[in-house]
Each structure stands twice: as structure tokens, then as C-alpha cells.
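Task: complex structure prediction.
Instruction: return C-alpha cells for all chains below.
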Amino acid sequence: MKLFEYESKSLAQNLGINTPRGGLASTPDEARDIHKRIGGEVVVKAQVLVAGRGKAGGIKFGSKPDETRDRASEILSMTIKGEKVKKVLVEQKLAIKKELFGSIVLDRVNKCQTILASDHGGIDIEEVASKSPEKILRHRLDPVFGMRGFDARQVALKLGYGGQRLNALTDLLANLYRLSVIYDAELVESNPLVETSDGKFVAADLRVIVDDNSLFRHPEFQERSKEASAEVTPLEAKARENGLAFVELDGDIGIMGNGAGLVMATLDMVNHYGGKPANFCDVGGGADAEHVATALQIIQGDQKVHKIFINILAGITRCDEVAKGIVEVKKVVGLKKPLVVRMQGTNFDEGKRILDSAGITTLEKMDEAAQLVTSAKVA
Amino acid sequence: MTLLVGKQTRAIVQGITGNQGSFHTRLMREYGTQIVAGVTPGKGGTNTQGVSVYDTVAAALERTDANASIIFVPAPFAKEAGMEAIDAGLNPVVIITEMIPARDSMVLMAYAKEHGATIIGPNTPGVITPGEAKLGIMPGDVFSLGGVGVASRSGTLTYEIASYLTRAGIGQSTCLGIGGDPITGLNFVDVLKMFRDDKSTDAVVLIGEIGGSAEEDAADFIEDTKYAKPVAAYVAGRAAPPGKRMGHAGAIITGTEGTADAKMKRFREVGVRVAEVPSELPRLLQQQKAATIQQ
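Output:
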């Protein structure tokens, strides 16, 4: 679960991490009032979960409160990469000496957390990472003991700091790590991490992504995780409430299957034969008739879906349960779109019999079914 | 010799009294796996599917000579269940449980490494040596005994591909799911090493998917070591949009990293034949074998 910048910073402030003075505004007038309160020049930043807001025009400056109100008004009317801006963060403009990059990431390959840091921070860090990877320091942390003081100190030293500044940067990195532990974050990233002209280190931006699988032990995020996120479409939200792994796509063939890998392969195969999938929908292992019926209703309720492909390789899942779910939908609300069903495995004969008697054809081979559903025969 | 599981395996089922645990205990026994004990805290002294249940792994080992474990316990308890199995010297430890916090997996894998234990999973269908034994939830009947080692990041897709191989008369030596999570006990490189040293394996199939760099690392390893056995692959998720988690916790394209196309390209660069659709794999594998023999 991605946190907004303002949420990330509020967690960071509790741990003593320096962040710019400022406040959160939902209206242009609130933005102006915050500017009046903090004085000086300010930066107005769109609060969105998608990356790349700077390049999209979601960060603007204000030298007077009225100007800040106008800039906030512009940003609050923006939609950045499909995400509507609802709030802006108004913060004091820092006196920047240098822009660094500092993050604590979950390192899949090394099965540990790793510090990534660079003295080439700022908006082009992705380009730095791809063109001059040597400019990004990587320091692995022990998976059990975590970050020791010397881990952070070694990084600060390699970034070229000494004396008080070395200690200050060490403390900040250690606190970013503490944040990752306390909140089970798979990513804590400050970019830019600003060295100010008076020798302080400030997390000018902060991104935190909490590990979804850890949410059960974080009651503090319980309400937040239920909120409809801008990252999730209404259809996805509905499907997920019903226990389905669901991603909306922009094609017209609705897809349902069991198992993430098989569903991904189903999308690929539909693409391969010239079709366009409308969604990814994994009913999971051992889905019963009711679960299948729910998934089918959600998919056929999607306006852009013109036909539906159900692909089941039954192991723990049983073909007869899947068939019952389909027939249930046919009886109760009717099948509103042409349907191709492929099933194989556990209780296939019974499943096929149930579908046959409801007049629904079942194919046994995935390739044949994918070719059929993408052909003009099904329309 | 059989890799990881076989006739010699005597397994404990941790979480045996749950729905999945008891259901799959029955199926594993029907397939021929020796299940010698079950563990569920608070249910010691009872019996599930004809298997005696103990409160701890240590207690089970006082009465049995178990040498492996399969874990079905819920995610919040999976890390400690894994450590308990490792502590008792069980090896391998198969973790079926999904949705385990990444931090827990990280600590568990470090513990396993320190003790020299092999972890399969988490979020895996398990491991099967066709015709001998399975520690997992896969349907036994799609597999057949032969010489192809199969390693995968997915469950049902593995069954799909195993059934293509079986129908084409290509049997398998060992099939295992490394797991769909970001952090798993084994990666493709570990499995390539095992298959390289396994006399009953003469070719390898890797079933990858979007996210992370397990496939690229495998390709590097194949290139660097001039891997002697033929390898064919399929990578799921070409149609997946960036930034969306496709069912598995580990299946997400971040930035431009982890795309299926990049993984397929890297595999092809090192001579691995890559299937466009899963059903092509048997044919590719046969071509690959023929080419290797000619060399």
C-alpha cells in the first residue's frame, strides 16, 4: 500500500526526521493561509500516488500567499496519469546546497534490505540509475541484525561527508531504516534528500510503500487500507472486496481463471491470437460455485466486455463447482455475453455434464479455447 | 537419487488440522508420500486422516523419524513454523502458505541459510518427483516420470505445462514451484545448480513471470557457467500493465524493470528457447535437445 507524501512525512516527523515546515490543503484558500503562516517562499506539491508528478507539472512555487493560492488552484484541478489531485502539500522552499537520494529497499535478490544512496538526487534519479549506475551506492543490511550505526556511517562517508554532517546524515539514514521496520515498509525513499546551506539534512520528499502482507499487524493502517485508493478503479475495488485478484485492462474480452500464473498466461495467449483482454481475474485455488458466480457477474457487468473466456485448470479447484457457478449465473441473471469455457482436471466429467445440460460448450485445451474466443465465431 | 523428495521422504505436516492441511495430507498419502506426523498447537494427541497430531515439531520427532516438513499454517505464524522445522533439523521445508510478510520471509531465509536448510516457497505449489512422492498441493495425475526438471514461479501454470509435457511423452524428473513471493528460499539459479548435478535430469524448463530479476539472473548463470543441459522457458505476463500486481505478490513491473519481454530477450540471448505460448514448450524442448546433441 502506497502512502501519500504527507502521510509518509507525518510518520517520519514522529521519528525525528527533518521535513520542511508546511501544511496540507484541500482548497486554494487553505493553501494561501498555510503560506501566510509559514512565510517566505513556498513550494506547492500535488499529493498523488503515481510517480512523475514533477514532470507532469504537479509541483509549483509561490513567492506570495495569493500566488500560492493560484498555483494550488491550478494543481487541485489537475489529473496526473489518471489520478485526480485532491490535496496539495504547501511547504517552505529550502535553501538547497545539494540534492541527495536515499532509500531503504526490500532487496529481492539478496533477501535483505539494502540502502540505496546517491549524491545525484533529484528529478532525474531514474536516468542516473540507468545511465550511470556507479553513481548509486548500494549497501546491503544484515537480514537479522538490520542496520547498525556503522552501516549508515559508511554510506554517509562514501557520499563525501565528514564531521557534524556525517553524523547528521547517519542519523537520518538510521531513522529512515527505523521507519521501514516499524511500519513494515518495502520501500522508504527520500528524493530529494536535501542538504541545506546551513548544514542540515531534510527529507524534502518522502515515499513509503507498506508491505500489503503485513497489514494484519498494523491496526494503524486498517482504515486507510479500506479507503478507495486512486490506484484502484471502481471495478477493481468491487472485485477485491469480493476476494478476487483483479486488474482492469482496456480490451473487450473478459478473463477469469484460477492461479495468477495461469491467468497471466491466458491474457498473453488471448493477445497472441489477436484479442484484447479486458481484465485479469484470478479466483484463486479451491474456488467454490458462489465465488465463481460472483466473479462472472462482476466481469459481465463491465460495459466494455463483449465476450468472456473462463480458463480453469482444476487441481484443488473442482470443475463441477466452477460449472455450478456458471449455471447459477445463467439461471439467476442470465448470461449476457458470449462465453467460452475451458476446463481440465479434477471432476472434469461432472463439470462438463453440468455445462452440457445448460447448453454451454466446454473445451479441454487452452489453445483451442483461446483461438475460439478471439475468432469471429464468438461475437 | 531423487532431488528434494522421494521414497526416502518422511514428512511432517505443520497445520495438519486445517482445511487445506488435512485435505492435502490425504492426497499426498494417496500419491505415495510418507506422512509420518502432523503438528497443530493445542491439538496434540488427536488424529487427522489417520496421522497422529502433536503440539510441537520436537514432540513429533520423539515418536517418529521425520526428515522433511510441509507447512500450511496461516501467514502470521508461518515464520515461526518454518524456524521450528529448521530447528528440528527437517530438510527440505516446503511452505505452501501465501501472504507472508516480506520481513518475516527475509528473517526466515537467513535462519535457513545459517542452518543449511532448503526452503521451498513460500507461496508455492510444492515439489513432486513423479511416481515417487509429492510435498505439495499439485494434482499428481498431470505429471509423469522422465528426465525434464521443471521450476516455476506459479502453480496452475506449472500443472498446465506439465500436462503438455506429459501428453507429448516427455516425463519429468522433479517439478517444483520456487514460489510467487518477492522473497523465496530458492531462486532459479539455485534450481539450475541442483538440476545440473542431478543424474536423473537431462533438460530443464523454467516457467517465469513478470517482476524481479530471477529470470535475468538465471540467464546470466547459464551464460557464465556455459550450462551443459538444454534449457527452455516460458515467461508469463507480456500483457501485464506496469505498476499493477498480477495476483502474486512478486508479479509486478516496477518502472521499466521486470517486463516479460526483457526476460524473454535475455533468455534468447543466452541460447534458451522461449515459448510464445505455453503449449509450444514440448516442441521447443525437443528441438533444444536435438541441437545440444549435435553440438
